[in-house]
What we know:
alpha/beta; TIM Barrel; 12-stranded mixed beta sheet; 11 helices; 17% strand; binds guanosine-5'-triphosphate; binds iron/sulfur cluster; 4 iron, 4 sulfur cluster binding; 4Fe-4S; rSAM; iron
Amino acid sequence: MQHAAPLIDPFARPITYLRVSVTDRCDFRCVYCMAEHMQFLPKAELLTLEELDRLCSAFVGLGVQKLRITGGEPLVRRNIMGFFHAMSRHLGAGLEELTLTTNGSQLGRFAGELADCGVRRVNVSLDTLDPDKFAAITRWGRLPQVLDGIRAAAAAGLRVKINVVALRGVNDGELFDLVRWCGDQGHDLTFIEVMPMGDLGNEDRLDQYWPLSDLRARLAERFTLMDLAERTGGPARYVRLRETGQKIGFITPLTHNFCESCNRVRLTCTGELFMCLGQEDNADLRAPLRASGDDAVLIDAIRAAIANKPKGHDFDYSRQTVTGQMTRHMSHTGG
Ligand SMILES: Nc1nc2c(ncn2[C@@H]2O[C@H](COP(=O)(O)OP(=O)(O)OP(=O)(O)O)[C@@H](O)[C@H]2O)c(=O)[nH]1
Ligand SMILES: C[S@@+](CC[C@H](N)C(=O)[O-])C[C@H]1O[C@@H](n2cnc3c(N)ncnc32)[C@H](O)[C@@H]1O
Ligand code: SF4
Ligand code: SF4
């Protein structure tokens, strides 16, 4: 329940969307997200789920309406279903949407319980329908397990949105197959431009980068794209394909910056609050959380952090070099 003035940042943007990375660990090692030999946080540094509950509840009290659980892989955190159950108490009492972004590997186990917790839709990352390519991209993932997970989600009544990172030379040849498959299955589909997050070892961002302006032009060779005004509260802009009626989203941090309408901040599993995905600056909420059982200190710290939210990211590949690169990996803040 909201009990205080809402969070408004220095650029007059209301902050109503909290993304929470509940673990930095993952059962996959996607080539654009992680180095092959990632060092994860010692478990002792993680906030407990009860502490994360207190933090998220404070944000809901401050006007957050949408809560997205992410990671790492959120569904590998022990007792994560207990956390979803706990968060579901806020639905209809300030919180309008409780949802998650997942690689889908554990949906076979958890889809039904997620639906019971009031989750209505789930975003599943799936960059290819080719089993060998899938194994190459995710290093540790296996496609059939993810497809089973997606089926389980649909069977549980969850709406599925497939997130595809557009990767030149990797999935550019599958554009129409992915569109057709999502259409046949009744899943929404969103493409994402690859962002320069974290050192990946051998991978080169410029080689990976496939601008969505190109992808969109390719789509327009076969379909009539009708721009839609509707929004999901995230950064995607949507079109409908006139010929099939399908909805397709584009997340374009590089070719079309959407920061002016930013409504979100990110909380990590150690209690850091990142005010922008594309900046290094963060605020520690763990100390104020642990300083007192009363939320007043915590709420002051949250307001002070929001007062420092930057205007946007500085990602740029336009001069054939990568600028605005972040040191942390995408799994740290959960995308
Ligand atoms: N630069 C930037 N990229 C973002 C932001 N939010 C999401 N993304 C990118 O979009 C990807 C997909 O986001 P999702 O986790 O599906 O969340 P969403 O786009 O808010 O989802 P919807 O609620 O379905 O709109 C993330 O992993 C990021 O790569 C943002 O604020 N800034
Ligand atoms: C970090 S993952 C966390 C949740 C879950 N493990 C998953 O893969 O959906 C969230 C999203 O970030 C995307 N992602 C990871 N690294 C990225 C990068 N460098 N640029 C753009 N998107 C990225 C993934 O494709 C995924 O859709
Ligand atoms: S994108 Fe998601 S599934 Fe892939 S390595 Fe990163 S956190 Fe794991
Ligand atoms: S890059 Fe930063 S300011 Fe821009 S939309 Fe993402 S979080 Fe918001």
